[in-house]
Amino acid sequence: MKTKFILAAIATVFSVGAFAQTPASSTAVNQVKQDNKEIRQENREIRHDKRDISQDKKEIGQDRKARNADQRAEDADIKKGDMTDAQKMEKRREHEQREINKEKRDLNKDRKDLRHDRHERNADVKERNHDAAKIK
After folding, report:
1. Distance between CA atoms of 33 and 41, rounded to whole angstroms?
2. What are phi and psi of 132, to 5 degrees?
3. How many CA atoms within 13 Å lie on the side-chain side of 93?
4. Per the record, which residues fall in region Disordered (predicted)?
5. What confidence tens digit (pLDDT) does each residue in 22-71 have?
6. Which residues, including other chains, have CB under 8 Å from residue 45's CB and lie 6 or more apart?
7. 79: part of which helix (H) or strand (E)?
8. Strands (E), the chain
9. In the structure, what pLDDT confidence band is assigned to residue 125 with cuts at 50, 70 and 90?
10. String of b and e for 17-31 (b: at least 16 CB within 10 Å)?
């Protein structure tokens, strides 16, 4: 009777250990799947941010063209001796330049955020790879 009890206890100890390992590996797999989902989402956000940055750069280029046109008009007014129109064009050009500077600051902030997002994503990939290496 004692032998059966001891064998049952030993079998229980080994089976509990085997069952305890199964959820650990499945939680690791689930963690890797969750990490993959987060990484894909971050990749999507990075692509959108890159697209937005590209559009902002195009807008800045268009604003610069408008500013340069205002500068040429101002120069033409000065050549004609029309100082009133030249002053109007100068104010308009200065306003355009302030807008360009504001957009450039925003663009640089977006680039900084993009670098930060990429850094976070790379850290997540490293963590995911570390978790995946544990799965056997």
Report:
1. 12
2. -70, -30
3. 16
4. 23-136
5. 555 678 788 888 889 999 999 999 999 999 999 999 999 999 999 999 89
6. 117
7. helix 2-80
8. none
9. very high
10. eeeeeeeeeeebeeb
Amino acid at position 88, single letter: K
Domain residue ranges in the chain: 2-134
Residue with tokens 């956000």: 45
CB 68 within 8 A of CB 92: no
* Length of the chain as a residue count: 136
Is the distance from CB of 53 to CB of 114 less than 8 angstroms?
yes
Helix (H) / strand (E) element for 87: namely helix 83-134
Model-level pTM?
A: 0.68
Q: Is residue 50 a contact partner of residue 100, using CB atoms and an 8 Å limit?
A: no
